Amino acid sequence: MEAKIHPKRPKHLNLFKIKQPLPAVVSILHRISGALLFFPGIPLVLCGMQLLLQSPESYEILIGYWQMPAIKGLLLLSLWFFLHHLCAGIRHVLLDLHIGVALSPARASSVVVLIAGFSLTVIAGVLIW
Question: pTM for the full model?
Fold first, then answer.
């Protein structure tokens, strides 16, 4: 028997047109922030630590970099990556402990993660700037 294929099935699935639920968005952002913290984050931190500890002149160079608005913006963005990853990680641990697994608490915890990550980043940005 030959399986019949529906003639009107989509040939291309556009993932940008699909509206994801908020817990899925938080989970995807958690994965993306973890990947960005790992690859560009670790080498940049190690490079900064080398400049910090190498000599007093290299320390002054690093401080000069940190005074640039573009570098402060990148620092703030990477800080948001870290804070969102931390808050979402705590949420995932609670979900693994079967706390807030139902749909309503899962949506509420997703909102809390987004608000907490953004609020902590704004507070840190005010202190940095």
Answer: 0.84
